[in-house]
Records
---
Amino acid sequence: MGRTKNSKPNHIAIIMDGNGRWAQEHGFPRAVGHKTGVERVREIVRASLDREIPILTLYAFSQENWKRPAEEISVLMRLLDYFLEEEAKTLVEQGVKLRILGHPEALPAPIYEKLKKVVSATSGNSRLLLNIALNYGSRSEILGAIYAIVEKAKNEPSFVTGPESLTEEKFASFLDTQGLPDPDLLIRTSGEMRLSNFLLWQLSYAEIYITKKYWPDFTADEYALAIAEYQMRDRRFGDVLV
Ligand code: IPE
Ligand code: IPE
Ligand code: MG
């Protein structure tokens, strides 16, 4: 292996994909794939803490995932509920701060209440920021930002005085990821080569790592491989390397 080119990523985003196919290949119902996927969430959170990764963003449920059969959606909601119930204490103890991206208010009310509780219980933590994207869609996030900016400009005309006054930084402050640095590394499991409406603005210069491993097989060792590959990449940001 050559010389490391980048220090460890500051912000890692993951599209956790392939639970269904993993289950199918093992002859299990899809629900078993989702359940095993939750174990990997725990493992990757722990691995992020061990490796001192400051920010981890997990895509758990997209706006488009509502198209799935009601039975599967209810399995996913039950697992989320169970995760919050089981993990709340551990997250507090581990120093993890939970933040939600997307529209969690449209999730079943008891889950939304639990989410708010865990977000507030972990708000003082700072070892790892764990963002979970729930009922998230990047295009609607961007449209929401535009709408909020238009509203603000109506009430406060000095806020946007011309195209150049709306900087990228100002615009980004209206996104769900407000205040966060962009992801350095995007990991997608299960071999699919698409973004599926995830962080379209924020991933502009992320290094993309796609593995054929299904999410239930994405262990801490697989995570280490992704990080090691990231560290070998040339990041140019449009510039030339000297
Ligand atoms: C990822 O696994 C979990 C969610 C999208 C909620 P999938 O359920 O998409 O699994 P595949 O892609 O059908 O195998
Ligand atoms: C992306 O996976 C969404 C999440 C991982 C939550 P999907 O399985 O929904 O993506 P597509 O439908 O294959 O693009
Ligand atoms: Mg999928």
---
Amino acid sequence: MTFSLMPLPFAKNALAPHMSEQTLDFHHGKHHQTYVDALNKLIVGTPYTKAALEDIIRDTSENVDQGRIFNNAAQVWNHNFFWNCLTPAPAPVGRNLSQQLTKAFGSMDEFKARFKEMALTQFGSGWAWLVMDQGQLKITKTSNAENPLAVGQKALLTCDVWEHAYYLDYQNRRADMVQVFLDKLINWEFVARNLDSAPAHQAA
Ligand code: FE2
């Protein structure tokens, strides 16, 4: 096996009641595991058995013949990244990150409102993102497995808006899940580290 399922960086019951153990059982233990297993099967006999996940994503993103490899590789990476965006005990938003978000979006509240709107207007399965794109902070959305890596952006934060991410806890209420994500679950220290390591980032 080339790739393995990244362990959750918190206990499976640690995000309850905002994200239940049952949701994580399915989302991490079944959905994420399935992407890992599918990727490992698809890359047998290809040079990708020795490649880094990020390189597989970049290499296959433009090639329709490799769509299945791209979809599964990107979904493995997206979920690894998503779990790192979550924490049961969010620290306050750091000073530099807060300043950068305020500069880009007007205020922290406006950042949250715009991120939420992006998450809600993603039609069907996909992801909402905060990215660094050529030195600028942007809020974006992608469909299905698509992600910022594939288009040369640096991901800073994501929210999974596939129904499998919230249906057990919130049924059809995606807005409620996204609001809880923004208010109760974001690992701002992880977001700040991503900002600090963004190649084009110029500290204020
Ligand atoms: Fe997911």
